Design the sequence.
C-alpha cells in the first residue's frame, strides 16, 4: 500500500471513528435520558399514588401507614411524608439493605425539593440514590411534601447494558464500514496509483509504460488519458530518435569535416571526418573555445570574420596537417534562429587535395606531352628544312638526316602508341582477353626478344623458373607487355657488367614474378612517383634511351586490370626490385 492509499485510509478511519464515537455518545445520551425519564416517571406515579392515599383521607392513620408501606415495598423504595413544617408524618420502606439517611435528606435534598409547585426528580450519584419530591398543596398553600427515594443501581445496570450493546453495535458497524471502505478506496485508488506510477515512469523517460483501463468512470478516463499521453510521447520520441539517428549518421558519415560552434565561441560538435582529417582527439577538442582548439590561424580568422560580419564565407586554404600540406575548401555560415537570435557558426571542411593533385597531374601531363611531342617534331622539322635547303645533293648527309628523321618518327610513333594504349587501358569497361597462360613460355619468349639488347648492353639476363607447370589466367599479350617493360627498364638502367634477374615463385593462390637488377637505383621519395606519366628518375639518360616515360604507368594499370599488385623496393647504387603478384584464377570484380 503506497503513501497515498495509507493517507486516504487513515483519514477515512479517523473520520469513521469520529462519526461513530459521536454517534455513540449521542445515542448513549439519548438512551440514558430515556431511562432516567422512565425512572422518574415511575417514581412520579408512585408519589402521586401515595399522595392520593394521604390527601383523600379515606383511610385512618394506621391504614395510611400500612398503604404507604405496601407501596414502598411494591416499588422497592423509601417513602417519606413531611408536613408543612418538615416534620415526618410517615416514613417507611428500605433501600436494598441501606438505612435511610434523614440527615442527608434534611441538609441536601429538602432544600432542592421545597418550594416546587410540581414534582421534582433529583438523582444523587454520590449515594447512588434517586429522589422524587411531590409537594402537597391546598390551593396555593404548601401543606407538606411526599419524598420518594430509591436506589439507582438498576438504572446504572440498565445504562451499562445499553452502553455494552451500543459499543458492540458500533464496533460491528466500524468493522463492516472499514472493510467496505478499504475495498472502495482500493477500487478507486488503484487506478490513481497505477496512473501515478506510469506518470513517474514517463517522467523518467520510459515511454513504454502503460496503465490498466478497467472502469468507465473518471478514474478510467484518467488511465485512458495517461495511456494516450504515453503513446503520443513514445511516437514523438521514436520519431525524434529516428530523426536524430539520421542526422547523426549523416553528420558522422559525410565525407567532409564539420564543426559546430555555439554563440559563445565554444565547439559543440565535431564529426568523424574532421577528426580523421586533422588527427584530433574529440575529448580535448570538444567544449573548447575555438581560438584555443584550432591550431591554424587561417581557420581562426574565418571564424572571427563570420562572428563580426554575420555573413557566409567560402575560402580555399593550404594548411599543414602533420607532415603534409593539404588543400581545403572551407565553408562557414552563421546560424541565426527565430527573431534573429544568434545561435553560432557551422564550418564545413572539404578536402580538395586529390582534386588539386589531379589538376596538377593534368597540367603536368599536358606540359609533358607537349614537351615529349615537341622534341621529335622539332628534330624532324629541322632536318627536313635542312634537306630542302640543299642537303639532298650530298647523299651521305641526306642519308644521315633521313636516318635521324626515321628514328624520331619511330620515337613519335612509340609515344603516340603508348598514349593510345594507356588511354585504352584507363577507359571504363576495358576488357582483357582472359585465357590460361604459361608463365614459363611467356618469359622464355621475352628472353628471346631482349637477348640482343642484353648482349648489346653487356648485362647478363638471368631467368629462374620453378619446376613443374606455372599457369595463370590472364591476357597473354598484356602480360608480355608488362614484363617486357619491366625487364627492358632493368636492362636500360643497369650499367655494363651488371645483371638482371627474373625469378618466378609459386604460391597457393598466386604467382610472384620478381624482376631485380643491379642498376642505379632510386631514392625512397621517388618511388611513389615512378608510376606517374612521364616521370623519369634519370631524365637525361632515360630520354637518350628512347623511352616515352609511360611504360611504368602502363604496367601499373595492366597489373591492376589483372586484379594483381605491384610493389617496388630500391636503393641508390645497388639496384631496384619489382614484385608482381598475379592470381592463378582471374576473378571478375575481385
Sequence:
Amino acid at each position: 500500500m503506497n503513501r497515498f492509499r495509507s493517507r486516504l485510509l487513515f483519514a477515512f478511519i479517523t473520520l469513521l471513528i469520529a462519526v461513530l464515537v459521536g454517534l455513540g455518545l449521542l445515542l448513549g445520551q439519548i438512551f440514558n435520558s430515556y431511562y432516567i425519564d422512565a425512572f422518574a416517571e415511575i417514581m412520579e406515579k408512585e408519589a402521586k399514588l401515595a399522595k392520593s392515599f394521604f390527601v383523600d383521607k379515606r383511610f385512618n392513620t394506621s391504614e395510611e401507614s400500612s398503604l404507604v408501606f405496601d407501596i414502598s415495598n411494591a416499588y422497592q423504595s423509601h417513602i417519606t411524608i413531611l408536613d408543612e413544617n418538615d416534620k415526618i408524618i410517615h416514613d417507611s420502606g428500605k433501600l436494598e439493605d441501606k438505612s435511610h439517611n434523614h440527615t442527608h435528606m434534611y441538609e441536601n435534598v429538602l432544600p432542592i425539593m421545597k418550594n416546587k409547585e410540581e414534582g421534582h426528580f433529583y438523582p444523587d450519584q454520590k449515594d447512588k440514590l434517586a429522589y422524587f419530591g411531590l409537594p402537597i398543596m391546598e390551593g396555593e398553600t404548601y401543606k407538606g411534601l411526599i419524598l420518594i427515594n430509591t436506589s439507582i443501581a438498576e438504572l446504572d445496570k440498565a445504562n451499562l447494558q445499553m452502553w455494552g450493546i451500543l459499543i458492540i453495535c458500533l464496533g460491528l458497524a466500524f468493522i463492516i464500514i472499514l472493510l467496505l471502505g478499504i475495498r472502495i478506496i482500493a477500487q478507486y485508488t488503484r487506478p490513481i496509483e497505477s496512473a501515478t506510477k506510469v506518470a513517474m515512469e514517463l517522467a523518467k523517460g520510459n515511454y513504454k509504460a502503460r496503465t490498466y483501463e478497467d472502469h468507465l468512470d473518471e478514474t478510467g478516463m484518467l488511465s485512458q488519458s495517461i495511456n494516450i499521453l504515453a503513446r503520443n510521447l513514445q511516437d514523438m520520441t521514436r520519431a525524434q530518435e529516428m530523426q536524430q539517428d539520421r542526422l547523426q549518421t549523416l553528420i558522422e558519415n559525410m565525407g567532409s569535416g564539420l564543426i559546430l560552434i555555439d554563440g559563445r565561441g565554444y565547439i559543440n560538435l565535431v564529426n568523424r571526418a574532421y577528426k580523421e582529417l586533422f588527427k584530433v582527439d574529440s575529448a580535448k577538442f570538444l567544449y573548447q573555445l575555438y581560438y584555443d582548439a584550432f591550431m591554424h590561424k587561417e581557420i581562426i580568422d574565418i571564424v572571427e570574420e563570420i562572428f563580426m560580419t554575420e555573413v557566409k564565407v567560402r575560402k580555399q586554404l593550404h594548411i599543414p596537417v602533420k607532415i603534409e600540406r593539404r588543400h581545403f575548401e572551407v565553408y562557414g555560415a552563421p546560424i541565426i534562429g527565430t527573431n534573429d537570435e544568434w545561435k553560432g557558426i557551422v564550418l564545413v571542411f572539404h578536402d580538395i587535395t586529390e582534386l588539386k593533385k589531379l589538376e596538377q597531374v593534368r597540367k603536368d601531363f599536358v606540359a609533358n606531352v607537349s614537351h615529349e611531342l615537341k622534341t621529335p617534331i622539332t628534330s624532324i622539322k629541322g632536318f627536313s628544312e635542312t634537306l630542302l635547303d640543299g642537303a639532298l645533293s650530298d647523299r651521305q648527309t641526306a642519308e644521315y638526316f633521313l636516318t635521324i628523321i626515321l628514328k624520331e618518327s619511330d620515337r613519335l610513333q612509340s609515344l603516340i602508341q603508348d598514349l593510345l594504349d594507356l588511354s585504352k587501358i584507363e577507359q571504363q569497361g576495358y576488357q582483357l582477353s582472359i585465357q590460361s597462360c604459361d608463365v614459363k613460355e611467356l618469359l622464355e619468349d621475352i628472353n628471346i626478344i631482349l637477348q640482343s639488347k642484353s648482349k648489346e648492353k653487356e648485362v647478363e639476363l638471368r631467368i629462374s623458373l620453378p619446376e613443374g607447370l606455372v599457369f595463370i589466367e590472364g591476357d597473354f599479350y598484356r602480360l608480355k607487355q608488362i614484363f617486357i617493360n619491366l625487364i627492358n627498364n632493368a636492362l636500360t638502367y643497369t650499367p655494363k657488367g651488371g645483371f638482371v634477374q627474373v625469378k618466378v615463385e609459386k604460391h597457393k593462390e598466386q604467382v610472384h614474378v620478381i624482376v631485380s637488377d643491379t642498376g642505379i637505383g632510386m631514392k625512397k621519395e621517388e618511388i611513389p612517383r615512378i608510376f606517374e606519366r612521364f616521370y623519369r628518375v634519370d631524365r637525361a639518360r632515360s630520354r637518350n634511351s628512347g623511352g616515352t616515360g609511360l611504360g611504368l604507368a602502363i604496367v601499373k594499370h595492366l597489373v591492376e586490370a589483372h586484379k594483381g599488385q605491384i610493389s617496388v623496393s630500391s636503393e641508390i647504387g645497388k639496384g631496384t626490385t619489382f614484385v608482381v603478384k598475379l592470381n592463378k584464377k582471374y576473378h571478375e570484380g575481385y
Summary: The mean pLDDT is 79.
